[in-house]
Structure formats: structure tokens, C-alpha cells
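Fill in residues.
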């Protein structure tokens, strides 16, 4: 080879390595490179001519008004700006939700309609709307409407402002336009010589409809912290200030679904999903704000001095600035007053977590890629050989024929049904990947069909949009169109998806959508969807509709009887109704381990209860101790899956020596033993919208020490978990909240609440505790999969509090079907009070015709905190005496007798009974 050639090769190699070694900041726009963001962000408060509200009246139980702003004085040599005229609609819903819509007046001959995001709000939302019949005008400049729950909404006329406050002129809770930053670029015709095109790198966005952005300021009064607006990688749970004194990093939080290669562990840049919902909290109050808008959004959290004022602002107020490229204002204010009230209010709009099948709550084993059927069989056997349970084996893109989804590589996977049957025989399941990019190749029948039917998203010139993704040249079905979603759903039938069986479920990746050669690795904004909607208007919801269509496909496949499991990388508000999400392509380092907790907690706060991070980290090779710590933490994520990039070394849990195998086995056992508790929490999430993995402050809303703790978390209201995020860490400072004590899950020893503890760190577990006053149901026999544990007996772990009382719940159903919706489930409450433990049903009567029964028994009752010397109990019915003996906390626990144990009480889980301590 000649030397210039070698030089060229070297150059190529170095550029390739840099391509694969770091996040490429230049590929993504900053606020300054985004005209609508720059425009809104550089405006100072009250600098626009004031906006006023007039013609306020009631119509169909809603308030309507006209918003008006005279144009600002034109700058010398520039075109005069048009005046603003908008229609406002304000309505009130049950349980403390106010809705504000602001849109153009289309009677004014504007041709294009702005996009309103369909199918995100619950279809029965309107049934919960309250009919307003009366307005008050305490003074000539404002109009007041009454919300339920002791709150009222005030419209200030001039300048226009909305303030939600406590009734009778009480303290403000949340307000809009207090700083006069509301701006709405109305659609208009292009002026002579005006250039609407936007360029970024090599891409040009035609912007045929011109500027159409919206900006508004929202203030959370009485707030100390704000949370939410995923998805960002963050080392902190509360949202940091993006402007104001002392803020150096000056980018707003960006909501724009993007496939970001090797995302940083702490950054406001947008990644795979977007939920424009923010919550505020302080010991006194909580509130929420949700803006239903699927265009790119940028959000500033403003600190003291952001507005140029020298002093400190109103004590306990957080101002925020919301900027969106397009769409309308369709915003919801939630008044709490408690943080769980805010979550319920948000769930009343976008729905709760879909109840998963029980297997999906267990451990998932994934890798890009399990190569072939032999590899699958080997991994499956490895788990059995090493006595490690797992429930689901995953196949990434390489299992397909040339990246055509719904197909199998015939050489590598010649007998997919047989492969799935072998797993199913052990109660295990399989998940395969199905992405939205469709290979543009005539051998792809799906592509031929989609082309023929005109089902693809169109480019600005009206042709099928052609982008580059895994299969090469690809097109994307237009998931906004309900007809196309129906068509897509049919592809999951057993006849259409050849080689699939009832134990196969689905994973949607790359649905941001990811387009390798598109601007910012996604679709151009001027691409056209169903109904003439531009991609810029719905971008953040594309993945949502894809996830929805896939979940509906599995639902159809099972005749409406089999709960779907679909994991999605992209998401939007409401995605919780369709399945699980994960935090995408993280990296195998300690920082990403640590960021996973605030990320999963934030997802839970914004409705996405079923989420987790890739255990081990997707990119790179984790050190063994990192991998072990990740299993120990991941065992508590609501979604517990290990995954790895195909350039990484194999990392199944038995590849790191006997000791490490034992440590990872034990971590997975922790999850399997807690499956009854997790499943009960999923039930709660699916009913109420309260997440499974919770920030400490959700359970201890008055304890300020917890408000920005993103290192520890609660699982339900009973368990506390602290991650270990440093290599070789010997001790850790742990804050245990509340007034009651905590029982260490490993040692059974009690620790005081309301204080910091310096704890020794052990290799075999991360610090985890059960709160005094709770009862946790467990299963302690380990089998190959959760399915095989269905009939295993339960253990009840009772942690008594200072009044020698405790309480807990257990939910059981068939783990698979929708019969629970017709009453086929068991829901028990356990309560320990006055020396008596009782089990009673908390299932409402007359729920439906279907029954679920279980002969499963309780094999152990473990009581922590009972005075020493307790020896006997009597069980009713039957007046049977039972022995109480000192013993270890868990079946396989050490010898140290920290608890009182009733062995084999011979009780059925579904019966009413009592156990009285003598
Ligand atoms: C003890 O636990 C019971 C049951 O959870 C609860 O009702 C009671 O308030 C708790 N007592 C104290 C002092 O926290």
C-alpha cells in the first residue's frame, strides 16, 4: 500500500473511532440555533405590549374569551408585526383540574388548522367535566370561576393573567403569564421577500407555514422544587435552574424525541421521550402543569435574578418558561394539594399504567444479539445450570432477515416456533424487536403493501419519505392515521407474523423516529402526515402512536384476552396505557448507574410507572463490581432487564466467577422473592396512577431532607432502597425518613428514622429497609421462572411500628388475562393491631361474574419488632394454637434470630383469618 493510502486509512480510522466514542454535540441544535427558542428566551418580562382578555362569557359550561394584543411599535426599517387575536376557552374537571385552551380564530380565514394532539387524553375525560353555571367578578378587572376542592381560577383581564388560588381570595397556587411572556405567532401569509426556510447543518426545513411558535410563563407559588418533564439524563431528581444567578450551563430542558448516541449522564438535552408535565412541591403544597403539545418544546426553570432583578424573588416561588415550535395551547393546571393528589389528577387526564402480565414484572435477559437458536438454548440452559431464575429472553434486530421485521433469518433461526415452545415449557417467554423503519426493498411484502396503499409518511415534495436506518433505505408508516394503525395491528396476528407463538411479545425501538441521515438523526420537520399535519407538529408523539398500534396488535392477536407486553424507547404523555419504556442506550459506567435512579423516578412521576434502565449499561464493558451493583439496584426497577451492545463482551451472570455468579443470583432472587409485592404495586399503579418506584418525598411529603434525594427511593410505601454508586465504597451515609424505624432487609436490625446513618457497605447487597408499620408479602422458593412460582406458598413479613401495629396488601389474579376486570382476583388486606394479625378481603362486592380462586397457603409469618419472649399464638377460625419461635428474617437468611416466626400456620391466602398473640 502506498503511504498516502495508509494515511487516508488512518484518518478514516480515527474519525470512525471518534464517531463511536462520544456524544456528538454538534449534531444537535442548541436553543440559540433554534429560532423559536432564541426568540422567546431572549425576551425580557413585560417587554411585549400587554395582552388583554375581553368578551368573557359562559358557553356550554365553559368560559370563553378573546385575547388581544396591539402590535408593538415597529423597529426602524422593519416590517410591522401583526396584531394578536386569539380565542380562549377555560373549563373545569372533577378533582381539581383546570384546562386552558388558546387557539386561532379560524373564522378569520386562516386556512391551515393548528395541530391538536388526538388520542392522548382519556376518551371519557369529558364525562368528568364540571358544568360552570356562574362567574363572579369581585372587581371590574377580573373574573373568577370556582374549581372543586377549595380552589378558584381567576382571569385577570388587562394585562391577561390566569391565577389558580385557594378559594375566597386565598394564596396563589399556580399562575400563567404573571411575567407577560405569553407569545403566540399566528399563522399568516408570507410577506414579499420573506424567508421562512430554516437551515441546520446540511438540512433545510422549508417551513411552508412559516413561524407558529408559542411561549408562556408558568409560576408555581409556594414551591421549593420542581420535577418531571422527562426525558433527560440527570444526576439530580429535582430540576435544576437553567437561568438566573449562578447558572452557567445555559440550555433549557429540551423535549424533542431523539436517538442520541452515547448520551451524557447529566444534561438538559432531549433524548428518546417527552412528557410535558411538571410537578412542584414543598412541605406546604404541591401542584402540576401539563401542556398537551407534541411539537419540540424547550423549558426554562428560572432562578433568582433571571429577570434582571437584583434581589431575591418571592420566597418559595418557581417561575418557568415554556416554548413550543407549533401546535396550540391546551394546558392543564392541577392543584394537588398533596403530591399524590397531583399524580391522580394527571392520571385522570392521560390514564394509568396498563396492568402487565406477571411474567413481565420478573427478570428479562437481553443482548444485541443472541445469535442463533443454539445461542438461545445455551443461554437458557445457563440460567438453569446456575440456578438463576429468568422469565424472558430477548432477540434484537439481527434475528430478522435483512432487518425486515416480522421475519426470521432462515439460517440462524430456522425453527422459531420450536425455540419458543422450549422456553414456554419452562414458563418462559420471548420478546422480538419490531421497529418502524421499513426496508425499501421489493422482497419486503410489507413495504410493497404500504407503498401500494399510500401508508408512508410523505416528504415535503409529496413522495414517500425515504430515510436511512438499520436496513438501509427505509420508509415509515404514518402512525397518526388510525386506519394505518389498524393495518399495523393486524400484522401481529399469528397468521401474519409467521413463526410467532402465544408466548412471544414485542419490543419497539428506534421509534423517535430514528433516521440516521435525517436532521438531528430524526425525520425532517417538513415531512407530511395524515391530514396535512407537519412532522414538526407531532414529532414527540410519533413513537407514542407506534407503541399504541403495536400494543393493540397484541391485544387483537389474543382476542382481547391476553394482556400485551410492548416495550418502547420513545414515549409521550399517555404511553403508560400501552406498556413499558426504558431509558435507552446508556453506558456501562458508575455515573449512568447513578443517573438511572432520578430518571426512573421522573418517569414514574409523569405516569410511566413501568420503566427501568439497561442493567450493566448498554455501551461498553462494565467492571464486574459495577455489573454486580447494577443487578442489585436494577432488581428494584419496575422494569428489570439486562441488555448490552453487540460490540461488548458477553456478560451473562455466570461469566465472572463463582462468587460474582452468587452475588448476581442473590440480586435476582431479591426481585423474585418480592414479586407478590411488586405485582400488588402494579395493581395500585394501574388503578390510581401512583408509581411503583417513588421519590422519598412522595411518601414523606413534609420531610425536607428528602426533596432532592435522587440516590435513594421507595418501592411502594414499604421499602426503602439506597443505591451504591462508587467503586469499592466502604461506607455510605443514608438518610432514613419519617419518625418510625426501619428494618434492614438483610440483617433484620432496626434503625431509627428521621436521621442519617453511616452504614457499612457490603458486597452482597445494597442498603434496603422495610418501614416499621408495614406488611410485605413475599415468595421465597426459587424456580426457573415466575410462572412456575404461581402455586408456591407466601411469606408475610410484618414490621411493627412504635404502636406495635402494621398494615399491608396483596393482590393476586391469573397474571395474564383481563378477567380481573370482571372480578376475577383476590385482594387481601393484612393488619396487625392490638396483638392480633388479621386477613380480610378488600375487594368490593358485585364486581362481576368471574371468579379467581387460589389454594395457595402461607408458609411463614415473620414478625419484626415483637417483644422478646413471645411464644404462642392462637389462630381463628379453628381455635388452633401455633408456636412462635425466634428465627432469621428470610428462609435462606443467616442464623441470627432477629425475628419472631410462625412456621406453617396452615392458612390459605384467600381466606379470612386472625392470629392472636398470647
Ligand atoms: C403504625 O402502623 C399503623 C398501620 O400502618 C398505622 O395506622 C399507625 O398510624 C402507625 N403508628 C405510628 C405511631 O406511626
Amino acid at each position: 500500500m502506498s503511504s498516502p493510502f495508509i494515511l487516508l486509512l488512518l484518518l478514516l480510522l480515527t474519525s470512525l473511532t471518534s464517531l463511536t466514542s462520544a456524544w456528538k454535540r454538534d449534531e444537535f441544535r442548541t436553543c440559540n440555533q433554534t429560532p423559536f427558542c432564541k426568540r422567546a428566551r431572549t425576551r425580557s418580562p413585560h417587554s411585549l405590549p400587554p395582552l388583554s382578555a375581553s368578551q368573557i362569557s359562559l358557553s356550554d359550561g365553559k368560559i370563553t374569551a378573546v385575547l388581544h394584543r396591539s402590535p408593538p411599535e415597529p423597529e426602524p426599517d422593519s416590517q410591522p408585526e401583526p396584531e394578536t387575536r386569539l380565542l380562549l376557552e377555560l373549563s373545569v374537571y372533577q378533582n381539581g383540574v383546570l384546562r386552558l385552551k388558546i387557539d386561532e380564530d379560524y373564522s378569520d380565514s386562516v386556512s391551515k388548522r393548528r395541530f391538536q394532539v388526538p388520542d392522548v387524553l382519556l376518551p371519557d375525560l369529558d364525562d368528568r367535566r364540571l358544568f360552570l353555571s356562574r362567574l363572579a367578578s369581585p372587581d371590574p378587572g377580573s373574573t373568577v370561576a370556582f374549581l372543586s376542592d377549595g380552589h378558584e381560577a381567576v382571569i385577570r383581564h388587562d394585562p391577561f393573567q390566569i391565577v389558580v388560588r385557594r378559594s375566597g381570595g386565598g394564596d396563589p397556587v399556580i399562575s400563567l403569564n404573571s411575567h407577560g411572556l405569553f407569545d403566540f405567532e399566528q399563522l399568516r401569509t408570507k410577506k414579499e421577500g420573506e424567508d421562512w426556510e430554516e437551515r441546520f447543518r446540511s438540512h433545510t426545513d422549508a417551513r411552508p407555514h412559516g413561524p407558529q411558535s408559542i411561549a408562556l410563563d408558568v409560576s408555581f407559588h409556594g414551591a421549593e422544587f420542581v420535577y418531571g418533564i422527562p426525558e433527560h439524563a440527570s444526576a439530580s431528581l429535582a430540576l435544576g435552574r437553567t437561568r438566573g444567578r449562578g447558572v452557567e450551563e445555559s440550555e433549557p430542558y429540551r423535549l424533542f424525541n431523539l436517538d442520541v448516541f452515547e448520551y451524557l449522564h447529566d444534561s438538559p438535552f432531549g433524548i428518546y421521550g417527552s412528557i410535558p408535565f411538571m410537578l412542584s412541591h414543598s412541605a406546604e403544597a404541591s401542584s402540576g402543569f401539563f401542556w398537551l403539545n407534541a411539537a419540540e418544546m424547550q423549558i426554562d426553570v428560572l432562578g433568582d435574578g433571571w429577570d434582571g432583578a437584583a434581589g431575591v424573588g418571592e420566597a418559595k416561588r418557581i417561575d418557568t418558561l415554556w416554548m413550543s415550535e407549533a401546535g396550540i395551547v391546551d394546558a392543564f393546571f392541577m392543584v394537588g394539594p398533596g403530591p399524590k393528589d397531583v399524580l391522580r389528577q394527571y392520571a385522570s387526564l392521560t390514564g394509568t399504567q396498563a396492568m402487565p402480565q406477571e411474567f413481565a414484572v420478573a427478570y428479562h435477559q437481553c443482548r444485541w444479539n443472541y445469535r442463533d437458536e443454539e445461542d438461545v438454548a445455551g443461554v437458557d440452559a445457563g440460567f438453569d445450570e446456575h440456578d438463576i431464575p429468568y422469565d424472558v429472553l430477548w432477540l434484537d434486530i439481527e434475528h430478522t432477515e435483512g432487518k425486515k421485521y416480522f421475519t426470521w433469518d432462515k439460517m440462524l433461526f430456522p425453527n422459531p416456533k420450536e425455540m419458543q415452545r422450549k422456553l414456554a415449557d419452562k414458563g418462559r417467554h420471548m420478546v422480538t424487536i419490531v421497529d418502524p423503519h421499513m426496508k425499501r426493498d421489493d422482497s419486503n411484502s410489507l413495504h410493497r403493501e404500504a407503498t401500494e396503499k399510500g401508508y408512508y409518511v410523505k416528504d415535503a415534495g409529496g413522495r414517500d419519505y425515504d430515510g436511512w436506518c438499520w436496513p438501509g433505505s427505509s420508509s415509515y408508516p404514518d402512525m397518526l392515521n388510525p386506519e394505518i394503525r389498524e393495518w399495523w395491528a393486524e400484522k401481529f396476528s399469528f397468521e401474519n407474523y409467521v413463526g410467532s407463538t402465544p408466548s412471544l411479545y414485542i419490543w419497539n425501538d428506534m421509534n423517535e423516529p430514528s433516521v440516521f441521515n435525517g436532521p438531528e438523526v430524526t425525520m425532517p420537520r417538513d415531512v407530511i402526515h395524515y391530514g396535512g399535519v407537519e412532522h414538526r407538529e407531532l414529532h414527540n408523539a410519533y413513537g407514542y402512536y407506534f407503541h399504541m398500534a403495536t400494543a393493540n396488535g397484541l391485544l387483537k392477536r389474543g382476542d382481547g384476552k391476553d394482556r400485551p407486553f410492548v416495550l418502547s424507547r420513545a414515549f409521550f404523555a399517555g404511553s403508560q396505557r400501552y406498556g413499558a419504556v426504558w431509558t435507552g442506550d446508556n453506558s456501562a459506567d458508575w455515573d449512568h448507574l447513578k443517573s438511572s435512579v432520578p430518571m426512573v423516578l421522573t418517569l414514574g412521576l409523569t405516569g410511566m410507572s413501568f420503566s427501568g434502565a439497561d442493567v450493566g449499561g448498554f455501551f461498553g464493558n462494565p467492571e464486574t463490581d459495577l455489573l454486580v451493583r447494577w443487578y442489585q439496584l436494577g432488581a428494584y426497577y419496575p422494569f428489570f432487564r439486562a441488555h448490552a451492545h453487540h460490540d461488548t463482551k458477553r456478560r451473562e451472570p455466570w461469566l465472572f466467577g463463582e462468587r460474582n455468579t452468587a452475588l448476581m443470583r442473590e440480586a435476582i432472587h431479591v426481585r423474585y422473592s418480592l414479586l407478590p409485592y411488586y405485582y400488588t404495586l402494579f395493581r395500585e399503579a394501574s388503578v390510581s396512577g401512583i408509581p411503583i418506584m417513588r421519590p422519598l418525598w412522595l411518601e414523606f411529603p413534609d420531610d425536607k431532607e428528602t426533596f432532592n434525594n435522587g440516590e435513594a427511593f421507595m418501592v411502594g410505601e414499604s421499602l426503602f432502597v439506597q443505591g451504591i454508586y462508587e467503586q469499592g465504597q466502604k461506607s455510605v451515609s443514608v438518610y432514613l425518613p419519617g419518625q418510625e424505624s426501619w428494618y434492614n432487609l438483610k440483617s433484620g436490625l432496626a434503625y431509627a428514622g428521621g436521621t442519617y446513618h453511616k452504614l457499612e457497605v457490603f458486597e452482597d447487597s445494597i442498603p434496603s429497609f422495610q418501614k416499621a408499620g408495614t406488611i410485605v408479602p413475599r415468595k421465597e422458593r426459587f424456580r426457573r421462572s415466575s410462572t412456575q412460582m404461581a402455586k408456591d406458598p407466601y411469606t408475610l413479613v410484618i414490621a411493627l411500628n412504635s404502636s406495635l401495629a402494621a398494615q399491608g396488601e396483596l393482590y393476586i389474579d391469573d397474571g395474564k388475562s383481563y378477567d380481573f376486570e370482571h372480578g376475577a382476583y383476590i385482594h387481601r388486606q393484612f393488619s396487625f393491631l392490638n396483638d392480633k394479625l388479621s386477613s380480610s378481603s378488600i375487594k368490593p362486592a358485585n364486581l362481576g361474574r368471574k371468579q379467581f380462586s387460589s389454594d395457595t397457603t402461607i408458609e411463614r409469618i415473620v414478625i419484626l419488632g415483637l417483644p422478646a419472649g413471645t411464644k404462642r399464638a392462637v389462630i381463628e377460625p379453628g381455635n388452633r394454637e401455633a408456636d412462635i419461635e425466634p428465627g432469621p428474617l428470610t428462609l435462606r437468611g443467616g442464623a441470627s434470630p432477629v425475628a419472631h416466626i410462625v412456621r406453617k400456620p396452615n392458612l390459605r391466602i384467600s381466606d379470612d383469618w386472625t392470629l392472636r398473640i398470647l
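The longest helix spans residues 3-19.
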